[in-house]
Amino acid sequence: MRILYCAIDQRVPGTRGGSVHVRAVAEGLAARGHEVHALAGPGRGGFPAGAVHWHALAAPFGSPRLRLARAPRVLALARALRPDVVLERYQNFGGEGILAARREGAPAVLEVNAPVVDHPGSLKHLLDRLLVGQPMRRWRDWQCRVAELLVTPDATIVPAWVPRDRILEIEWGADTERFHPGARSEVSFARTSSDTIAIFAGAFRTWHGAVNLVDAVARLRAQGEHTLKAVFVGDGPELARTVRAARGVEGVTFLGAVAHEEMPGLLATADIGVAPFDPAAHRPLALGFYWSPLKIFEYMASGLPVVAPSIDRLRRIVGHGREGILYDADDPEGLSRALVELLDPGRREALGRSARARAVGDFSWQGHCSALERAFSRLVRRPGMVVQG
Asked: Is the pTM of this model over 0.90?
């Protein structure tokens, strides 16, 4: 198949989850023998080499709200390529890929990673109420109506009227060949043989709860537990607050943003992967925890037991006492208690082995792209097309 992938609100390569996702999907489909043309902004160092045909097309002035201004460029490329499938990464002000697919008669697939529906108190809903005819809602609904397939980690974030047979509900994943317990990296952190390292990797958004890990380390230090240390990887809006909270707390290290190529080795050097999400800090999550947590999949692939709050979606990904420890987010000592449970090396190793096996079996990008391929093939009826099993 010839696939046109519109993701012009992302930069590739990049350190954020969206960038990693776009690259993994494009490269995963290309590895399965498909001709993939991906539209994105070039990241630092330019697009990665390989089988994917990358096309530099970022949102005007770097603003996703201006994405539709790129519609003529996307349509021109679609007319030149004549793709079998057009895949667009959904964004509130997007739709350029769906428009091109519609005009060229190609099946349109909408990749939905953030809510199409409005959460309580949504700014989108308030704006629509002030405008005649609710144009934002109508535009989103139009995209969902004309897309032959919607791909999402959680079907509840697409309109309820979309038929279930047009929705592929699938999690994100990890590159289980690159992320493994034996990986090595040139980026490192100091540790001693008696240390237990809990690592947080992420974009430091409000609902990521990074500061909660600092609080847990401080709590354990006050209780006399000095072997647990925390390493933070990444940057973002909550980094400054987290750094301030860590002042005076021993055993906390901040590495800043790290190239994704270095992440497998960093995670493999740690002992525990922490994802202390705080859903109450992000209003759209009132719809439910729709996030597909890249960090958790990469922790698991690296053989790390996961520590995370006991939220419905996360309970389906991480089995409590099987791949990690889930704690009550309403308990102020829940995170620190969970970390204490994993100070035992034998328990960590057992849970880490189980986490690695689960990632390989259920949460690999290879499996994700295989499911996409099967779904795309049902949309395309092209004589002589060969689809891998």
From this structure: yes
